[in-house]
Fold this protein.
Amino acid sequence: MSILIGGSGSAGTTLLRVRLNNHPDLFSGTELNFFNKRLLFNDWNKFKLLVMPPNNSIATDGWFPYPGTNLLDGDFRWSADDLNDLIDSSQDIKSFSDSFFKRSLKHNNAKVWVEKTPSNAYCFKYFLKQFNHGKVIHLVRNPYDAVASLVGRGMSEFFAAGIWVYNNSAALTTLKSDRHLSVFYEDLISNPDEILQNIYRFIGVPAAQDEKPILKANTTIDGFSSWGSDPYSDIKPKATSKFNTLSNRQKERIIYALGSFYISSKDMKNNSLEFSNCYELCKFFGYEYKVAKKNYFLSLGGQLLKDAAKRTVKGYPTMPPNYIGRVKISPANI
């Protein structure tokens, strides 16, 4: 059995990974940045040599590029030589993954591997197609709180809004599958025991009784800092609104960013996405959609140009003319 966790950054994916890793039958290590690359699902033998760290020449074709992989992280117990041999001998991504996780499963006396990288959402549908017994868990959080948290970690409002909109839209491409489970961050915080039991049933493991030691990991992704809160402490019901702690100006900028960001029609068609913007997603999830009172088009437009230029310089697949993000001048007119 294999499980992917994905969704927007700062939606509780690390928190859930840590709690699931406590279950004696489950193992979840550091983010691999591996299952988010469609090229590896579509043509493993052509692109597999690009996954060996520290090679950063393969990136996602989704909103967050995530170049390279973390396959040599110590959690997974592979040497460079052994990993090279495994990559060379593997004929597809599933056979590679099955062999790759055997060492960590054996070391942890676990039965099921769980991989958490938020942008796994980009490849949920490819994963379910090739991993017959695989399942996906989609973490969802209020957009204003999630983006406030991402901005607090150093991201621009435009880029953070793009993460929330694109990652959630991509994750929902497998919504109709019985191997897809959506979990709301607010429910996980307010009623952790019930939600965790639901997740265990979905995965197919018994309720946890004897927990194993928590596997700690601190990650820094493409220059952005990791979790500011402590996902290793007990889950306690608390106020979950990061957004409400901000100044009015910061709130307005985030509201405008989420209201104005939308996915290009080209990318919507190429990836069979159903939702293109925050308004549509809020309506689907049941979150309140906020309308901006001020216009920050010039500021967000500058962030867009800066991000597009960075993708071009680094040669990412989503550089112009395949750039995913767009900005509406008047978000209230959605």
Observations:
- Confidence is low (pLDDT under 50) at residues 213-228.
